[in-house]
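Obj.: predict assembly geometry.
Materials: sequence records (below).
Method: joint structure prediction, all chains together.
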Amino acid sequence: MPLSDQQRQHFDELVKKNKVVLFMKGNKHFPQCGFSAQVIGILKETGVPFETVNVLSDPAVRDGIKEYSSWPTIPQLYVDGEFLGGCDIVKEMYAAGDLQKKLGVVEQPVTAPKITLDDGAAKAIKAADEGNGEHLRLEIGAQFQYELYFGPKQAGDIEVVANGVTVLFDKASAKRADGIRVQWVETPDGGAFKIENPNEPARVKSLTATELKSWMDEGKPFELFDVRGEDERNVAKIERARMLDASGEKHLLGLDKKTPIVFQCHHGMRSKSAAERFLKEGFTNVYNLEGGIEAWSQKVDPKVARY
Amino acid sequence: MASPIEETMKAAILEKIPGATVQVAPGSGGGHFTVQVLSPVFEGKSMLESQRLVLGAIAHLMKGDGAPVHAIDSLKTKTS
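Observations (raw structure tokens):
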């Protein structure tokens, strides 16, 4: 269906009025399609202000913009009235630095992140390498989701060699990767990569009863707080756990913010809320004992009563 | 054997770019595809121009709500 002059004029105005405008599915807060979300992510990385047009809210716009751009897919990015392309092209232009030039942003040079790979991780990666010239890529999303896979080298990639293994990062991931440690750990489901990243915002980490026991056996310095009341503690308690009453809380708040602090209750729910609360107080090494004292009794110390 | 829609896409691309080597494979879900096209016609063209050439050939299959082709997960154009 050809565009009417009126429609064409409407699009002309939209793309000229705004320096950067993205025709997308959903809006910048709730993209409703993965491709639109990727472009939003890139535009946010560049830091430029941008407008979005939700094509889902009007079928005439949805069909019209495809006609207007002679481009059959959404999203579509316009800068200074010029159609740049869809998701693939925007990604490529961003990686190569061309998008930043179009947007007029001066890109801070991204320095290669320092990363550590333990021997187990290096061995596992080498074993998975098919020798087809592809490298290990580590992608770190804006919410610190990790993707580890083999893929070809791309324009703008930052290459880091650690423990004999080459790891590729795209620019956005590289910024989030400085200081990471990649370890190979054995889990009940087999070996797995474990990534520790100091750039990640603090969150409550979960600790199993068995892990807590080994911390005790190793003599690792940490604090353990029981968030339950006196009545429940009279039924069952972990000897070392200090009650989080007024004096316990005073003691906690006086601790160094980096101290590992474990919270425990009956099943792990109340302690989780307590842990969240102290995370907000600025503590950075906050753990929740998964399954609470119930798990402790079942996995570690059967002498502790279950109730 | 490729499904009929993949064959239709391939034929449409070949009609626009005769002599090209075209691969169409299923993508991440129903109606999603990955496409790779190899042709000297892309020589000297930007990624936008190259993709527009291919997408233009299959645009009619991507139109409307009931379109057989919902999305192209990845489109690669190469000259050799």
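Conclusions so far: The mean pLDDT of chain A is 91.
To do: check interface contacts against the pulldown list.
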